[in-house]
Amino acid sequence: MNTTLTEKTADGSYVDWPAIFAGTVVAVAIGLLLTTFGAALGLSSITLDGTDNSSTLELVLTALWMVITLVASYLAGGYIAGRMRRRVESATDDEVTARDGINGLVVWGLGSVISAVMLSSALSFAANTAGNVAAGAGKAAGTVVEAAGSAVGGAASGLADAAGAAIPDEAKNDPTDYLSNQLLRPNQVDPLTADPEQLAEQTASIVANIYRTGEVSEEDRTYLAGAVAARTDLTQAQAKERVDQIVTQAQEARQEVEDAVAAAKAETEQAAAEAKEAAVEAAQTARNAGILTAFVLAAASLIAGVASVAGSVHGGRHRDQGRLFAGLTYRG
Fold first, then answer.
1. One domain, residues 150 and 272
2. One domain, residues 294 and 171
3. Distance of alpha carbon 138 from alpha carbon 26, whole angstroms
4. Any long-range contacts for 294-298 (C-beta under 8 Å, 24+ apart)?
5. Residue 179 CB-density burial (10 A; 0-12 exposed, 13-18 middle, 19+ buried)
6. Tell me, what's the pLDDT at 43?
7. What is the reported pTM?
8. What is the radius of gyration, based on Cα positions, of the chain?
9. Of 97, 207, 291, 300, which residue is least crowded by CB atoms under 10 Å?
10. Is the separation of the CB atoms in 300 and 108 below 8 Å?
11. Which of 20-34, 214-228, 297-311 has the lowest mean pLDDT?
């Protein structure tokens, strides 16, 4: 151990705050400059957008830039603090080195606290990205589900409109018309005395009920056949055959609507499940990126602390030797 004593001006504190503040200002300024430059290059945070080579290279470059930014900042700040620190009292060289190093460590601690707000953007960027990606995925999911739902409604509405094109408007939307007409209509249709307007209303009511329920009673079939025979020149058998055709067409049209609704509902559920899975995957990816970013910053910060101590010790030696780092020397 070197026990050489050096006489210096006495002082009340081994912690030289003016020198520490000077080093901290330099460290924060350099860190801000390099962080801004890195952000312009897209190296402000780690992103995980895939497993291809470009993504891996971007990850490595971003992590390397974070380390370089913090180490360079606190190496310079520590050097300034060590070079400007006043050597107090009589102390061995080892004690002076320890005091210089501790002052550099204080620069690192103070700089970390002061720059926390500025560097918090780098820490929270991945979290914000996670929220944005998840929100975007959720919005996309909602869009897909809404589109699928619209498809359901559109398909059902389109088929229903096509199926009900022949139904009078007054008989389409009120199921009570069918019940009322069923109460008042006669059991048999007399071709000679039947009111054409009443026949048309009763027939439309029955057909509308078939479209709504898909079912038709024998009484309704009989009445429809009698109404057709009364209004046309068809025989009762021919009228019954025509009624059977119309009933079959109505039931097929209704079944098409049901099939379309079921298919669209299945597509909607599948789209919702896929969108949910995509949102969860995006959130997990961004969460992993945030964890990795925080880990790299923590590791880089520890290395920066060591660099600040080393820089301060080196600056203290230059102080004692009356030297100055070449980059800070004026050669005018």
1. yes
2. no
3. 44
4. 294/123, 294/126, 296/46, 296/62, 296/63, 296/66, 296/67, 297/66, 297/70, 297/119, 297/122, 297/123
5. exposed
6. 74
7. 0.52
8. 43
9. 291
10. no
11. 214-228
